[in-house]
Amino acid sequence: MSRVLITGVAGFLGARLARRMLKDGWEVHGLDTVARVDAWRLEGVRLEYHWGSCQDIHDLHAPYVIHCASQADVPLGISSPNFTVSQSVLGTLAVLEAAKQYDGLERFLLQSSEEVYGYCARLPIKEEEPLNPTNVYGASKAAQELLSMAYHHSFGLPVTTIRSGTIIGEGMRRTQVIPIFVEQALRGEGLTIHGDGLQTRDFHWVDDHVDAMVAVLTKPEAVGLTLNVGSGEERSVRSIAETCLRTISNCWIEYLPQRPGEEGLRVVLDISRAQQILEYRPKVSFQEGLERIISWLTKERASYEQDTKCHQVA
């Protein structure tokens, strides 16, 4: 196998991808703003780690590039739009410039998001739908896509874009809806829904997504294309809360004001192109994934409580 650079390697998806590619025999280089000592998702992982920002990148280190780095939190995009654009858009521009200068670039894979679609009249959403983001995070991902494809057309960079559904799994950010609900339920608190909870997403398991990313690197016919990768199933926020209620007792639902840009938003991806070109098949069902996340967070909570007791005794 060859060398690959993964930007955002200390993040949830980047770290999972790095582990998989090392297992497959790739020489993995990783770039992240998180110091190596604090990259807890990469504990025990041996890779060439570069501590720095995409905006300061000068050398790609590898002929294969998987660009995962961005400001990845939708609510933070609302409160900190300047930071979001700086991290996601300017960082992508710098990586593309470095890629343009790299002699022997084989593939450039951009990790994008369902958030670029916004409101779509036709479901499931096909890749041909216009970009219509309803929040700053989605707009920053759309800008990443437009820049990357501009470099593909202008300079011949071998770009492929993956638009993911909402990726879930152990180690995911706890500021996302499923960990929020599970942790609230484990604490015996109300599950907080913004709006009526009828807004929907396409949730899929992280390792299924990694399968698709690795497959892109071996499929020359994917160059220049955008591919939806998700479960192809639509789930509402309210239905997820209700599933948590059935699975974990001593909790209830509380409704909060709607967040900007989410009222009536429905997302479910048409994944037929990825199925055809990448032979992509989701393996982990939503229910199995939810049970794994509950088990992970339950163990994390028990470990935290045990550590707290030890410190109190000491």
Give the helix/strand layout.
Blueprint: E1 3-7, H1 12-23, E2 27-32, E3 48-51, E4 64-67, H2 74-79, H3 81-101, E5 107-113, H4 136-155, E6 159-164, E7 166-168, H5 177-186, E8 190-194, E9 200-201, E10 203-205, H6 206-216, E11 226-229, E12 235-236, H7 237-247, E13 252-256, H8 272-277, H9 286-313
Parallel strand pairs: 1-2, 1-4, 2-3, 4-5, 5-6, 6-11, 7-10, 8-13
Antiparallel strand pairs: 9-12
Question: Which strand order spans the largest sheet, edge to edge or round the barrel?
Answer: 3-2-1-4-5-6-11
Q: Poorly predicted ranges (pLDDT <50, ≥5 residues)?
A: none
Order of helices and strands: EHEEEHHEHEEHEEEHEEHEHH
Biggest beta-sheet profile = 7 strands, parallel
What CATH architecture label of the domain at 3-172 and 203-232 and 268-284 applies? 3-Layer(aba) Sandwich
Please give the number of β-strands.
13
Share of residues in strands: 15-25%
Summarize the amount of helix as a percent range.
Answer: 25-40%
Q: Could you state the CATH homologous superfamily of the domain at 3-172 and 203-232 and 268-284?
A: NAD(P)-binding Rossmann-like Domain
Report the span from N to C terminus. 50 Å
Q: Helices and strands: which structural class?
A: alpha/beta
Characterize the quaternary organization of these chains: single chain
The helix count comes to 9
